[in-house]
Each structure stands twice: as C-alpha cells, then as structure tokens.
C-alpha cells in the first residue's frame, strides 16, 4: 500500500504553490524575481504562476518548452535567462 507524503497533507497548496501564511508573507515582500516554468510541467501549474505574478508584481515570467525538470533539461537556456533578468 502506498502512502501520500505527510508534507503534502500539512501544507496547503494551490496549483503546486505553497499557500501557507508564512510562505505568503515571504512572497509578498518586494524583490526582483524570475518565475520560470516548463510549459509541460504538470505540478507547477499556470494557476501557481498566476498566483506568483500577483504576489510578485515586479517579477518576470518566462515559460520554457520543457517539463517539470526544466533546470535539468534546459540548463543553458535557463541560465542565460537568469543572467539576463538579474544582470540589469
């Protein structure tokens, strides 16, 4: 018999994004951010991206032609994007 990890039962989530009060307080701080998502990611959903965009109004969003492991499969492209966003 398989059991769901305990952490997913304790932390409220919306579209793959943690929505517990402590996380939301951190996210509401004003700082530069890059919201990077793989277009085919079934776990970090567009609903979570939209939520982060609302919480991080100064953040930039980039969608990559990738899945959940975008950093592993598209490292050079994402690395270049990180430098582009944060080197200005």
From TrEMBL:
<dbReference type="InterPro" id="IPR029058">
    <property type="entry name" value="AB_hydrolase_fold"/>
</dbReference>
<protein>
    <recommendedName>
        <fullName>Alpha/beta hydrolase</fullName>
    </recommendedName>
</protein>
């Amino acid at each position: 018999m398989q059991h769901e990890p305990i952490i997913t039962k304790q932390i409220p989530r919306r579209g793959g994004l943690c929505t517990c009060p402590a996380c939301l307080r951190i996210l509401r701080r004003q700082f530069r951010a890059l919201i990077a998502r793989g277009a085919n990611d079934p776990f970090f959903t567009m609903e979570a991206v939209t939520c982060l965009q609302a919480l991080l109004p100064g953040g930039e969003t980039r969608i990559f032609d990738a899945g959940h492991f975008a950093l592993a499969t598209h490292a050079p492209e994402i690395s270049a994007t990180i430098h582009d966003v944060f080197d200005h």
